[in-house]
Amino acid sequence: MVEWLDQAIFYEIYPQSFQDSNADGIGDFNGIKRRLDHIQALGCNAIWMNPCFASPFSDAGYDVADYYKAAPRYGSNEELRELFEEIHNRNMHIILDLVPGHTSVEHPWFKESMKAEKNAYTDRYIWTDDIWKGFDGVNNIAGCIRGISDRDGSCAVNFFSTQPALNYGFAHPTESWQFGPDSEEATASRIAMQDIMAFWLDMGCDGFRVDMAGSMVKGDESGEATIAFWQKVRTFMEERYPDAAMISEWGEPDKSLKGGFHMDFLLHFGPSHYMDLFRVDEPFFSKRGKGDCKEFVDTYKKNYQATNGKGLICIPSGNHDMPRMRHWLDEEEMKIAFAFLLSMPGAPFIYYGDEIGMQYVENLQSVEGGFSRTGARTPMQWGDGVNDGFSTASPDKLYIPMDTNEQRPTVKKQEEDPDSLLHHVQALTKIRLENEALQSNATIAFEYVEDHAYPLVYRRDGKTQQVLVAINPSGQEVTCKIETKEAKQVLYHYGDKASLKAGMLTVPATSVTFFTI
Ligand code: NOJ
């Protein structure tokens, strides 16, 4: 186990949109450095930064052209190293975004691989042996690129057509051009990726968020071959970088944690029912009280039992791929949602701007492959002045336009308002950091969760304390019977305090209470 994850509270930075320091309209490393005070004051002690490597940016940097070089628009490798150093001086950690499944079509490996003559990179990507053959129906392959060079074959892609899939083999090869997951060719790709990881870890990063971690081996319906792939990477990490965190974008903790990841995200895709909580017409966290968290909790419990002790499940407030939570929830509802996010096991992840309730901006022109995701990637709203302090460039030069709503929140406005969402999130991170029963590894037991009903009640058991969390987002007071009979002290509450007497719990409308028991 990576010990620092137990107390970690992450902040996700989309580097393009966080803080511009050189007036080119796009965020950069030095801008991030300037804003570390904000992240720290929020109570976050760890950062996940989205891809920051050289890229043509057809998918916002998830199309890497050089894994060893910081994208010049963000700064130099040296400036990135200095950022790591500054973060460590503040006792914080930073993980980078590793994109092991595919590169950009502009990566030199791919350029070599496109050539008709055999060379060292011919098998670095997945190619059929005939341009008329594709990959229809193969699990973990999104489509193909063909007819772009003299090589006779189609190349598999993982996501957009500009993202050719690296070759980690097929779970069950049936064609001569398909390699096994332990073949020399697949192994060479894995070692190339490990070398890249070592390069950044040696420079000072503290681990990786791993993009599309479940898609490495193709035709791998059960996930077993991909699990075996990650177990090998884990062995390498254990030997050389035992304190580095590996966090997967997989969304199936029963698989990812077996593969050796320390933590897996629940996401807007996959079987987790994450969306039921915040992002459906009737979310559980809405005051209307028509939502449901039962299916979410049932799936969570199943995963939790399957993975208990082996790793963590993390529930982000959002990320750069889904509309912001504020699209469905008002600020009060978000306060209750954050009380949940910051009292669950696994390290919380706060997506930049969610701490002030930034909106999902609709109908924006797509930027760098963002499409509908673009509205969740608008510039951070800091304060007064031009572009809310994000950049001094003229507004038409910004990477993505600012939210133009006059009521839009800013950090400054919310710092001045003691009832703001920002202050509320700050209070919650503080409570979490002061109470070990609320941190990543303390166990959870659900005390009350019913189909389309409120409240949601759970117990967190730490080594030295137990905390009972009673959450009622609905606009009606609710009561329920629970196993825990009495509470000792109220650690925290939002709205009116809940009360617990002889196992009868009363939770006022739109409220959250944390009790010690
Ligand atoms: C998941 C990333 O979060 C997303 O932004 C990206 O487009 C795809 N993976 C492809 O790398």
Question: Would you spell out the secondary-structure blueprint of this structure?
Answer:
Elements: E1 10-13, H1 29-34, H2 36-42, E2 46-49, E3 53-54, E4 66-70, H3 77-89, E5 93-98, H4 108-113, E6 143-146, E7 154-157, H5 184-203, E8 207-210, H6 224-240, E9 245-248, H7 253-256, E10 263-265, H8 274-278, H9 294-307, E11 312-314, H10 331-341, E12 349-351, H11 411-416, H12 421-434, E13 443-448, E14 456-461, E15 466-472, E16 478-481, E17 489-494, E18 499-501, E19 504-507, E20 511-516
Parallel strand pairs: 1-2, 1-12, 2-5, 5-8, 8-9, 9-10, 10-11
Antiparallel strand pairs: 3-4, 6-7, 13-14, 14-15, 15-20, 16-19, 17-20, 18-19
Helix pairs in contact: 10-12
Bound molecules: 1-deoxynojirimycin.
1-deoxynojirimycin (NOJ) binds next to loops.
